[in-house]
Amino acid sequence: MYAMKYMNKQQCIERDEVRNVFRELQVMQGLEHPFLVNLWYSFQDEEDMFMVVDLLLGGDLRYHLQQSVHFTEGTVKLYICELALALEYLQRHHIIHRDIKPDNILLDEHAPEVFQVYVDGGPGYSYPVDWWSLGVTAYELLRGWRPYEIHSATPVDEILNMFKVERVHYSSTWCKGMVALLKKLLTKDPESRLSSLSDVQSAPYLADVNWDAVFEKALTPGFVPNKGRLNCDPTFELEEMILESKPLHKKKKRLAKHRSKDGTKESCPLNGHLQQCLETVRKEFIIFNREKHRRQQAPGSQTLDAESRAVSQTQSKLQDGCNNNTLAHTCSRGCSS
């Protein structure tokens, strides 16, 4: 069983988001790690682009925080180690996530996995930003709220002043080792912050960690989601069924009706620019099949079809830091594709 994400092509074009979707697909095709939500397949039809990924039924950490789950120090310690392995893997692939937070960390019955990765940090960002976010996440899991009271509407000047004058308050009930680790992750100066796996592994608090066992998910987690309940808010599922103008469960009937109208007077052709953009998306979209790719990468395999060549080119561009070139094609009026 897998989870599937689908994105409407026309809406992506209208919102100028096709480039971001292609970048997400490119990045995820080149990654595979125990603590990432891995991409298995990507495909398309007339309406949508699809991503098939690991299914994690344990819910995200934000949901469990909202359910007043108390995460023990032992649980958070293991989460820190598992997420540190994921960040080190992304760092080796020259990727900055930029959005490590409870909302983007999903649970299976064993461990947390990071979802939705991003290439490039943008002006002013480098790898230490993800390790800062790891510290913020660990703090929130332990205490129930973040070390700084910052919201999307908080003015930048207020945020900067907050960092200058406010100090992070650590609970007196936490062990000294955990506090020392969090302080090093939440160091304001990126140059002085723990910002690599080796940095984290050198922390005295983690000296007793069997990192091979962490990687193999061989350690018993302190918190196990309840398998007998839905670990998410069902409202989102209901909204998809009720409010979505082109719901997935009606796609087969809808497409069949659309095809039957093709070539008739009832057909309402799209405007030329949108049609051109849709055709560009169709041509540029890379179909991906991880199982097939694995077989072709196995020792003794000599075949490399067009799909595999496209994936190989994507991975080499990512490693060279030139992935933006793949997305440089544009429609006649500048619609990113």
TrEMBL record:
Residues 290-319 are annotated as: Disordered. Its cofactor is Mg(2+). Residues 1-206 form the Protein kinase domain. One of its GO terms (molecular function) is metal ion binding. Residues 298-319 have a biased composition (Polar residues). PANTHER family: G PROTEIN-COUPLED RECEPTOR KINASE/RIBOSOMAL PROTEIN S6 KINASE, SERINE_THREONINE-PROTEIN KINASE 32B ISOFORM X1. PROSITE patterns: PROTEIN_KINASE_DOM, PROTEIN_KINASE_ST. This is non-specific serine/threonine protein kinase. Its EC number is 2.7.11.1. The gene is STK32B. Keywords: ATP-binding, Kinase, Magnesium, Metal-binding, Nucleotide-binding, Serine/threonine-protein kinase, Transferase. The keyword Ribonucleoprotein does not apply. One of its GO terms (biological process) is G protein-coupled receptor signaling pathway. It catalyses: L-seryl-[protein] + ATP = O-phospho-L-seryl-[protein] + ADP + H(+); L-threonyl-[protein] + ATP = O-phospho-L-threonyl-[protein] + ADP + H(+). SUPFAM superfamilies: Protein kinase-like (PK-like).
